[in-house]
Amino acid sequence: MTFFARALMGATALTLAASPALAEKLTIATVNNGDMIRMQKLTDDFTSANPDIELEWVTLEENVLRQRVTTDIATKGGQYDIMTIGTYEAPIWAKQGWLVALEGLGDDYDADDLLPAIRGGLTVDGKLYAAPFYGESSMVMYRKDLMEKAGLEMPDAPTWDQIKEAAAAMTDKDNEVYGICLRGKAGWGENMAFLSAMANSYGAKWFDMDWKPQFDGEAWKATLTDYLDLMNNYGPPGASSNGFNENLSLFQTGKCGMWIDATVAASFVTNADDSQVADQVGFALAPDKGLGKRGNWLWAWNLAIPAGSQKVDAAKKFIAWATSKDYLSLVAENEGWANVPPGTRTSLYENQAYLDAAPFAKMTLESINAADPQSPTVDEVPYVGVQFVAIPEFQGIGTAVGQQFSAALAGSITTEQALANAQNVTERTMKKAGYIK
């Protein structure tokens, strides 16, 4: 070997020694909710243990996330290695063959510890296709100080009439305090998540047993009328633009007497670093109308791997880390037990440290267990899903109906027009899809 060749080999060896192996990059699409933002801040724990894996985040508003990941997976676009998807998409996409089954997440993952209500919605033919990052139902979050000032007491299981009475009593528009804050932003997972769950408690349903839409019935009219009455009389201005994050901000700054929304918000509204009313928040089950169903939903944000991914092993490693018992302990260590992602594991609700730190834990678990996706409505229906209908067409019709109801809240159309338009657009889609003639 010549001196030049030896020198060249030596230089090459030094270069290789100085450069780490090329990391495998995982592109993760997720929603801009607080728990996901927190996860991104804690990922040094994962990357230090897995230096061969690099993480790239695409963080999006809820409606935009749904649109992007749906388009990408349906067209096999391959933009994302891990997607944050909901309880709605997981079983539908799994049946389409669009997701990788999450087998082999590690001996210590303990899938049997996942709450049965949450795990069941993510399982197809006995296989888990998405791992829950956090699970939720919905409940009433309210200001105890304003209730006391109004001379009222919130029951653990209120009726809609009691909610209306409390909203009226707490409203002080001159001081920008509104008795109730609810979702008004259009979207199948925004205002229609709330309104579909509310409608269940009113005896309404999306479809009868022949798949005929039911927006022309009295139950939906009563639901929408009462919702608009609450929001127009006791809600904040501009509510037709408010989704989860907007209402969270309003509640944390003391502008809402009550907020009926995702149980996952409980840790944010009781966090003294972020919430001006942290020490005044009480919790109650979502309201009912005395018909046997409460107005609460069932949801989980989950991590899943699109089929055809070239990075399945690395993606499974990340998902196992982010949805594990150890991750909950990591959050507790850094942020306190009250701030761990809720609603996914039985063991969390058997952990006394969590129960002591989280005054909302019991009500969250009760709310999750109260939701029944197999029998969501007062009358029998041909679909499953609490605040959604588990058919592929629902994304489109749910958002179209949500736009009508948001327009009614904004005052640009009447209640009657919104319901008639909802009936027409849903009927047209269901005919085109072959559900009805």
TrEMBL record:
Signal recorded as keyword: yes
Highest taxon of the lineage: Bacteria
Cell location: Periplasm
Keyword Calcium: no
UniProt-listed CDD domains: PBP2_TMBP_like
SUPFAM superfamilies registered for this protein in UniProt: Periplasmic binding protein-like II
GO cellular component: periplasmic space
Main location, first listed in the record: periplasm
A Pfam family it matches: SBP_bac_1
Keywords: Periplasm, Signal
Signal peptide (UniProt feature, chain positions): 1-23
Family per similarity comment: Belongs to the bacterial solute-binding protein 1 family.
Protein name, as recorded: Sugar ABC transporter substrate-binding protein
Organism: Roseibium limicola
Lineage: Bacteria, Pseudomonadati, Pseudomonadota, Alphaproteobacteria, Hyphomicrobiales
